[in-house]
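Hi there,

I know you've been waiting on this one. I reran it after we fixed the sequence typo, so this is the corrected version. Both the input and the resulting structure follow.
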Amino acid sequence: MADELRSPMVQVSANYLFAMLSFRYIVDLERQRQELLVGRYGVIHVAQGRLEQITLRPWPKLVTLWESLVWGEYSHRQRRGDCCRLFYNQPRGSEQYLALKYIHTQRGTSVRSFQKALSILDQIAQIKGTDALVCEAANLRLNPRLMERYGWEQHTASPRNYIKRFYGNYSIRQPRNNELPSEPVLA
């Protein structure tokens, strides 16, 4: 029995289980590509227009209306700095999609940081080979025109559901400077 517990298959399973139940930190998309492929839930941390890290989480980000409309607004107004955190999930049963669940900015977050977080999400979608990104925009300042600038289109009859389709074509369209919103983002 003791020999069975030392078998490579049991060891791999134990390592995989530990990896799935712990937080992991990605700082290099290329070198840590395999971890990104396995991780289903993550937070992209960008500060001053640069990727600081991606935190892979053991559980999905669940967003409540209270969090997005009350706590998020309060937190945004109280915290200063150029920082953007973007939460994403890869839903079980729909592995070909990534869901953008929540974006948290601070007062003074630059357009550059906001764009970098979205760009990193696009890169993760490419690494995972996903067909599309989906989101439900609760913030009323995210209007169809702004979403279209970043490559998103209305997905359902609901005016708040958006999709960014790839289907193998990952050429990322970035908005031109004259299309950018004025700073700060979502102030």
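Quick highlight: Strands lie at 24-26, 41-47, 50-57, 83-89, 97-105, 132-136, 153-154, 161-165.

Best,
R. S.
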